[in-house]
Description:
Strand order of the largest sheet: 2-3-4-5-6-7
Strand content: 15-25%
Helix content: 25-40%
Bound molecules: pyridoxal-5'-phosphate
Amino acid sequence: xSIAKNVSTVRRKIAEACARAGRDAAGVLLLPVSKxxxxxxxxxxxxxxxxxxxxxxxxxxKVKIPQCSSRLQWHMIGHLQSNKARDAVQLFTMIQSIDSxxxxxxxxxxxxxxxxxxPVLLExxxxxxxxxxxxxxxxxxxxxxxxxxxLEIQGLMTIAPYTNTPERVRPYFRKLRELKxxxxxxxxxxxxxxxMGMSGDFEIALEEGAMIIRLGTALFGPRSYGKKTAD
Length: 231
Ligand SMILES: *Cc1c(COP(=O)(O)O)cnc(C)c1O
């Protein structure tokens, strides 16, 4: 399967899911997740009209981003260690994975030093999985983070539990939407983004209101970390 074909299949599924939910598909950001894929594969994806990419490791992004066209933009979607906050502020136009107040403070500190403002999403561990990062649904420090002058909270992000039955994760997506509405009320300002849905569950996420869907495998095919592929 070629990248062009994958993109058109995904776009059709997005349109269908949005139609089922009575939403406008034009408002959805399709974020290709390029971890584990080369700069060449990325350029092929960019040729399909996709300009913003997601990476989950600073280390990998730091090597890859300079190899790619400067018209591309990047979102950080993986767990960020505080000692990489400086690099993250320099490399990414959005950090989707703010998962602690200490990290938010560190990012804010570097944003100030580097003269930047950083759009962020707060990551929520909606299913309470021990293996995942993110705030508990009851303990999102939205006001404390909102008080950090260099961070601009644009919404929430979650990674649903892995499942072969996507319908099972619908309650977690619904929960994130409700939490976003509660955070908007708390801040007295609308939050535009809900980042939820990956290759296995993005159609359900769209039905539940996802504004950013993060797709790796569905767009690029399988990742092959550290392996040489035959083709
Ligand atoms: C890898 C990754 C994705 C994409 O995963 P696929 O299942 O390949 O679509 C999405 N979000 C995050 C945070 C990831 O690390």
